[in-house]
């Protein structure tokens, strides 16, 4: 089963003097983001600097909260996506649709200042010690989105599902270790009788 992950990052916006152009980063490289927390244990994620090399990005759309009509698109030239040393950089002309013009005004007014991206993972690594998932390679980039409050976005479940499963696995392993230790103590007591 393939699930689309979503990443939420600060939307670094530059509003152009003319037109309805916005620029920012949908993803930033080598910066830990806490994706899930349970009982004070944080599960983090990092996007590798080379994660988008070779990723399928031929038809990516920009929208609001990963929903609704696209407000820009790579296929028609209203959305440009590039990577630089900082991250996945976007430049979008939002003048082509009513929804885009409305979104532009909300970004310009400071009401919307975060971004997200929807993607599938090609390769990843996980460190049990630091509880950090590293996105090594993205298979496909589906969209970039300006988002309002990502913690309440129902699509956030995709990002959290990986970490919830990891937390459950770690808890089950801890219980098994305790059982084995208890069994060893009981066996040792029996042997010493």
Distance between the termini: 53 Å
What structural class do you assign from the helix and strand content?
A: alpha+beta
* Shape verdict: elongated
Order of helices and strands: EEEEEEEEEHEEH
Q: What kind of assembly state do the chains in view correspond to?
A: single chain
Report the count of strand segments: 11
Stretches where pLDDT is under 50 for at least 5 consecutive residues are 151-161
Question: Which strand-content bin applies to the residues?
Answer: 35-45%
Please describe what this structure looks like.
The protein is α+β, with helices and mostly antiparallel strands and 193 residues long. It is built from 2 helices and 11 strands. Strand 6 and strand 7 (67-73) form a beta hairpin. The chain is elongated and about 85 Å long. The N and C termini lie far apart (53 Å).
Summary, kept brief:
By secondary structure, the chain is an alpha+beta fold. It is 24% helix and 42% strand.
Keywords for this entry:
single chain; 193 residues; 11 strands
SSE blueprint:
Elements: E1 5-10, E2 14-15, E3 21-28, E4 33-38, E5 41-47, E6 61-64, E7 67-73, E8 79-83, E9 87-93, H1 98-108, E10 114-127, E11 132-147, H2 156-191
Parallel strand pairs: 5-11, 6-11
Antiparallel strand pairs: 1-10, 2-3, 3-9, 4-5, 6-7, 8-9, 10-11
């Amino acid at each position: 089963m393939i699930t689309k992950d979503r990443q939420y990052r600060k939307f670094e916006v530059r509003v152009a003097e003319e037109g309805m152009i916005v620029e920012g980063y949908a993803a930033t490289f080598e910066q830990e983001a806490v994706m899930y927390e349970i009982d004070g244990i944080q599960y983090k994620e990092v996007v590798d600097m080379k994660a988008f090399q070779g990723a399928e990005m031929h038809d990516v759309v920009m929208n609001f909260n990963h929903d609704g009509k696209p407000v820009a698109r790579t296929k028609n030239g209203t959305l440009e996506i590039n990577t630089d040393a900082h991250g996945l950089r976007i430049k979008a002309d939002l003048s082509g649709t009513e929804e885009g013009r409305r979104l532009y005004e909300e970004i310009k007014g400071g009401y919307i200042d975060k971004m997200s991206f929807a993607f599938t993972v090609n390769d990843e690594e996980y460190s049990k010690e630091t509880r950090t998932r590293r996105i090594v390679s993205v298979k496909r980039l589906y969209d970039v989105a300006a988002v309002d409050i990502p913690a309440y976005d129902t699509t956030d479940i995709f990002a959290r599902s990986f970490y919830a499963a990891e937390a459950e696995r770690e808890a089950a392993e801890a219980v098994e270790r305790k059982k084995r230790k208890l069994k060893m103590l009981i066996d040792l007591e029996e042997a010493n009788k």
